[in-house]
Structures are given as structure tokens and as C-alpha cells.
Amino acid sequence: MLEILYRDDWLIAIHKPAGLLVHRSELDRRETRFAVQLLRDQIGRRVQPVHRLDRGTSGVLLFAFEGDIAAALGHQFESQAVDKRYLAIVRGWPAEAGRIDHPLRVVRDPYERAADDEVPAQAALTRFRRLASVELPIAVDRYPASRYALLALAPESGRRHQLRRHLKHISHPIIGDATYGKGAHNRMFGEHFGSERLLLANLGLRFTHPVSGEVVSVTAPPAEDFRRVVAALGWSDVNCVPDFIWGD
Predict the structure, then answer these.
(1) In which domain, by residue range, is 207 found?
(2) Are 162 and 50 within 8 A, CB to CB?
């Protein structure tokens, strides 16, 4: 059963687990489970996703029951009117806070690094805050110890793989990212912490309700598999949701 975070007459939001596709894709023809289908079967009603989450990302996923509502919300996402908050575990120790202002070229294939050189790079901005850091006495690559950090992320634009590509750009890739990350660190997290997932979670969305006009906030704590890694790294006392999530 999918966990339902919010529901009214027009909208429904779930907590998508890592590894679940949002909808059917030509790139995953053998996959038989999709969030759209599972939610439709669970509630007995058709739904339309209004934004994307990568397969490996867990967290808040919003749907509409009607096409015009989905279109109205889609416009809010496209116009950067939706406030989004993510949590990630990354390699290294980034600055305590900062902005990544780095244009991104269009990526046609979500499983490839290659960008479309014929399309100009699009403006992309991500704000981040470091919540915790750790140095582990575990050798990775040529270093005798390894450093990691827990980041709160606020993407102010919505480019494909923006957070993953921006963190790679500043040399702090997300752990578990097979496309933009570092294999040695990903393997270490699998061996030592049993984590095979992308350690990126959508903790919340804030938007204007397309019918009532009220501001709606939908939040969710990190998934259990994410929290296990957080605990193993000694960050159990870090407040991952309430205080920082809508802060600047």
C-alpha cells in the first residue's frame, strides 16, 4: 500500500518509495509496477502526476484527479511557483550554505549523461544548507578516511536531474547515484550500510491550491531505508523536517 500524505476532492499526494517508477516508460519496458497504476488500483480512481521524481528518489509525489487541475499545477511547477525541499547524503563536506547557479543543458535520455548540444543551456539554481557531516575511518579510493554530509536542498528551477547534476558540478555527488556519482563511494555504502538506493528524498512541496487558492504544504519524513543510513552515520538527532524545511 502506498502511504497517502494528503487528499482532497482534487488532489492526492503519496510518499513514493525509492525504486518505484512514476509511470510507464519506454526505457523500462520490463517494469510492471508504477506509482500511477498502484495508486489508481488502491483508491479506485484515475490520477495524473503533476511533476516528476526520479525512480531512485523517494518522497512527496503529487497527483491530480482531473486534467485541468493537473495542467494548472504543472504551470506552477514550470513557472517556479512551487516551493520544493529535498534531503541528500553527499560525498565530502560542502560549505555550510550556498547557491549553485549553473545552467544545465537538456538531457533527452534520463539514463545518460549526454546533453543535447543543439539546445542552449537552461538557467538552473539550487540553494543548499549543510545539516550534518561525518568523517569515517574507511578508505575509499586513495584516501585513508572518507567524508560525507547531510544536505537540505531547495531547487528554484526544475531541470531534469537538476539536484544530481548540480551536486556533481560542485564535486559533492549524491551517494547512490549511478549516473553522476562515484562508484567507489556507492559500493562502500552498500557494503557497510546495506544501502543500494539513491540517497535523495523529496521532503516537501508548498503550492497554491488551484481551486481554493489556499497555500498547501505537504511534507514527509525521510523513508525508513534513508533513516537507517542517517542513523548509521550518527545523525539521528538531526531535525530533518520541521524547522529547516521552509527556511531560507
Answers:
(1) 3-232
(2) no
Say if residues 107 and 115 touch (Cβ distance below 8 Å). yes
Per the domain annotation, does 243 fall within a domain?
Answer: no
Question: What's the mean per-residue pLDDT of the chain?
Answer: 90
- Among positive and negative, which fits the CA dihedral 164, 165, 168, 172? negative
| 3 three-class SS | strand
Whether the CB-CB separation of 189 and 172 falls below 8 Å is answered with no
Name the domain count of the chain.
1
What confidence tens digit (pLDDT) does each residue in 206-244 have?
Answer: 999 999 999 999 999 999 999 999 999 999 888 776 454
Does residue 54 carry a catalytic annotation? yes
244 within some domain: no
* Domain-located, residue 161: yes
**β 200-208/58-64 pair status:** parallel
Q: Whose CA is closest to 89, among 217, 188, 4? A: 188
The Cα angle at residue 223 between residues 217 and 225, in degrees rounded to 5: 165
User: Is residue 248 assigned to a domain?
Assistant: no
Give the cell for residue 167. Answer: 551536486
CATH at residue 38: 3.30.2350.10
DSSP character at residue 173:
P
189 with 174: CB under 8 angstroms?
no
- Residues whose CB falls within 8 Å of the CB of residue 104, separated by 6 or more in sequence, listed in order: 115, 121, 122, 124, 159, 160, 162, 165, 166
Residues 6+ apart with CB under 8 A from 143: none
| Catalytic residue (choose from 9, 28, 54, 117) | 54
